[in-house]
Amino acid sequence: MTETLSRRSFLGAAAAAPLVGHTVDRTGFPAPAVIIPGAARFAAVASSNGLRGVAKAMELMTRGVDTLDAAVEGVKIQELDPEDTSVGYGGLPNEEGVVQLDASCMHGPSKRAGAVACLEGIKTPSEVARLVLKYTNHILLVGAGAKRFALSFGFREEDLLTSKSREIWLRWRANRGKEDDWVDVGEQEPIGPRPTGTINLNTINDRGDLSSVTTTSGLAFKIPGRSGDSPIVGAGQYTDNAVGSAGSTGLGEANIMACGGFLTVEYMRQGMSPTDAGLAALKRVVSLTPPRLLDPSGRPRYQLNFYAVNKRGDVGGASLFPSDYAAHDGRDATVRDTAYLFPK
Ligand code: ASP
Fold first, then answer.
1. Position with higher pLDDT, 306 vs 219
2. 133: domain CATH number?
3. Which of 121, 196, 205, 254 is the most exposed place for a label (fewest CB within 10 A)?
4. Domain for residue 6, yes or no?
């Protein structure tokens, strides 16, 4: 159980020196944090495909449902939607045509995390990640072990490849290069660059309890076994119940290098707003990007987004290039423009 300093003692400390306080924590090792005065309020923030998800999470939280359970119910809408080819059922497959799913979650009040990577045949990896969090001493299960773990809890194994996703994959396989043995297929509708997508959703209730979850089918046509940032705690999502929650969508490899979910929360700990914290984390990501992923003027050749909420319930979204995100402030669910580093 954590408590923040009272507003009065915070103001007293602030007069003496920096705007830094310590959370009272029975570990005896509290991390210093800027205390944000003001009562916590309900909020949810997500990638833009999470508009229905933030509404669902808010509806559940205001009925008293825990912030992690609310977040998981929110992202499950996309996991179960065959039209969302970036998440769960209907997600785009790896280069062999197999759908491999990644997810992770954190629960602020209990300081626990759970994740699965390269999970096959199960539609809702976010639920499996939550089971790892709740019922094991581990944090990340992968591949065949993650599937056996899910089946042991009664999940049904299903074919996750929809005809829409198979069609996109077959077209990609046929047209991937001139050197292979697949006959090129005339493109009535171009596939364009390799699609990416994911859903991240972060929640806070009026007691200031925070949670985060991210779930994805990952980079389309990836090398089998590839895990992106989504199942990596500290990259794809992160929660510190004294500070805030943050998560990401976009090129996972770029984010993993900077531990972007963790870094965004750390910037909020220093007192930045959720949006400014996301922008600061993106600058760090760019500074760590290998040259082959930068264009001649130093701009990244990929997109990356961070979504964040602080301990007070302020939300924000930031991206490398213009984008949008979904947020619920307790009144309405809206799609908003992100703050960004580079114009299109
Ligand atoms: N971050 C995901 C991954 O790298 C993909 C995405 O968000 O588009 O697996």
1. 306
2. 3.60.20.30
3. 121
4. no
Structural contact between residues 218 and 227, judged by C-beta atoms closer than 8 angstroms = yes
Q: Say which residue the tokens 């559940």 belong to.
A: 60
Number of independent structural domains in the chain: 1
Instruction: Give the model confidence (pLDDT) of 27-64 as tens digits.
Output: 777 777 776 667 899 999 999 999 999 999 999 999 99
What is the number of other CB atoms lying within 10 angstroms of the CB of residue 188?
A: 6
The residue among 40, 62, 120 whose CA lies nearest residue 88 is: 120
Assign 166 a pLDDT band (cuts: 50, 70, 90).
confident
For ligand 1, what atom is nearest to the CA of residue 249? 7
Query: How many angstroms separate the alpha carbon of residue 235 from the centre of ligand 1?
Result: 11
Q: How far is the CA of 172 from the centre of ligand 1 (A)?
A: 18
Distance CA 240, CA 232 (A): 15
d(CA 182, CA 173): 7
Rounded-to-integer distance, Cα 203 and Cα 289, Å: 30
Is 218 part of a structural domain of the chain? yes
Within-domain flag for 25? no
Whether 333 has a pLDDT exceeding 80, the answer reads yes
Site to probe by mutation for ligand 1, drawn from 84, 196, 232, 305 as the one with most ligand atoms within 8 Å of Cβ, is 196
In this structure, which residue's CA is closest to atom 9 in ligand 1? 218
Q: What predicted TM-score, i.e. pTM, was given to this entire model?
A: 0.88
Out of 124, 196, 198, 249, the active site residue is 198
Q: Provide the residue range defining the domain that includes 332.
A: 51-174+191-337
**Is residue 9 domain-resident?**
no
Q: Is 198 an active-site residue?
A: yes
- Would you say 245 and 111 are in contact if contact means Cβ atoms under 8 Å apart? no
Calculate how far, in angstroms, residue 314's C-alpha sits from the geometric centre of ligand 1: 25
The protein residue whose alpha carbon is closest to atom 4 in ligand 1 is: 252
Q: 250 in helix, strand or coil?
A: strand
